[in-house]
């Protein structure tokens, strides 16, 4: 599978500097990939999962990711876990958002004031694509790729979506060890993508109860679609675009 | 317009990792300003991922397979320097995937993408057909949506797009 990642930098003040920053940001993503891939036997995650590394030997990055996962597991009553039902260590539920947020941090540090980073459907935005308006992020309707549930306009923030419609039931409920059920998709807006991504996975694992729960965990808005196609949401924080479908 | 738009697309080719395995990074400068097009070399990294390039004759849409690295720059392809307005269709590279080869054509009107068509999708097995029929229209729409006037980007569940976006990207690369 490929996860496409893109960065749009509108009208950079210093194009060369912006391009260098984007290269560095992508290099950080490659680095995270090498460290966290379950599909490379030599990756740190694989070696730790196989018991070849002791906790005190872990890198700061893996330690940080595991701490994030532990926190999410506690906050979600055990629904979120990095242990697959078969016991394999799988940090995917934390790593993508965390790595993309860190890549966004590279752009921030380089002074790239406006950008939109999209990592396989999870988004970090900064500033404005054109003066006077924020970035417009369309949230895909899980049952119809030709429609958006909503279009959100934001300047600085993050949007993450977790769903079963692209990769099947790949999220499991740590409380039961079974595939998460109840929701087709969950979209979470938050100040940063690390938070948004892990919360979106948690909401999917928790099912309908997760929607209200996420609002107390740092989500600025939550939008989910249940198995019957009904939209369940806490959209008080959403700035919807004119003409977007009412939720 | 003086707006420059950078689009760096990092395409990973793993199986189901959250952040795939080895990847290709491409930076495409797609300026609205035609004069900058000549300098818009795209770069490919991570050797070994070179894809088969295909270039097209814009008027006929016929494609001629050629071999090239994924970082082919605009001057090296057959999509002659049509950087002004006008409609042009560029055929993307053939991207080998686990399920078979994927190839698309992308139609530009000026600097805007107006259509994405799948020329080759894997169809060897029933399962492949399902994957193709599902993911190709989805991704085509996402490409179009993402650069439509209404939205700047799309949030959705992580795609399962092995070669599709790579082929789209190569067409954008050729277009410069």
Number of strands of chain B: 9
Domain count of chain A = 1
- pLDDT under 50 segments of chain A (min length 5)? 242-247
Largest sheet of chain A: 7 strands, antiparallel
Structural class of chain B: alpha+beta
What is the succession of H and E elements of chain A? Answer: EHHHHEEEEEEEEHHEE
SS summary, helix count of chain A: 6
Please provide a written account of the structure.
The complex is a heterodimer of chains A (247) and B (176). Chain A has 247 residues and is of the alpha+beta class. Chain A has one domain: T-fold (Roll), CATH 3.10.520.10. The longest helix of chain A is centred in the N-terminal third of the chain and has 22 residues. Chain A is globular and about 50 Å long. With 176 residues, chain B is α+β, with helices and mostly antiparallel strands. Chain B has one domain. In chain B, the strands form three sheets. In chain B, strands 5, 6, 7 and 8 form a four-stranded antiparallel sheet that branches. In chain B, a hairpin with a 6-residue loop joins strand 3 and strand 4. The N terminus of chain B is likely disordered. At the A-B interface, strand 1, helix 1, helix 4, strand 3 and strand 4 of A face strand 1, strand 2, helix 1 and strand 9 of B. Chain B: It comes from Cellulomonas chitinilytica.
Topology:
The complex is a heterodimer of chains A (247) and B (176).
Chain A (H helix, E strand, L loop, with lengths): L4 E4 L6 H22 L7 H6 L10 H16 L16 H18 L5 E5 L2 E5 L8 E7 L2 E11 L2 E7 L8 E2 L4 E2 L3 E8 L2 H14 L2 H7 L3 E8 L4 E4 L13
Antiparallel strand pairs in A: 1-2, 2-3, 3-6, 4-5, 6-9, 7-8, 9-10, 10-11
Helix pairs in contact in A: 1-4, 4-5, 5-6
Chain B lengths: L5 E7 L10 E7 L24 E3 L6 E3 L21 E5 L3 E3 L2 E10 L2 E9 L5 H21 L6 E3 L8 H12 L1
Antiparallel strand pairs in B: 1-2, 3-4, 5-7, 6-7, 7-8
Write a short abstract of this structure.
Chain B: InterPro entries: FMN-bd. The complex is a heterodimer of chains A (247) and B (176). With 247 residues, chain A is an alpha+beta fold.
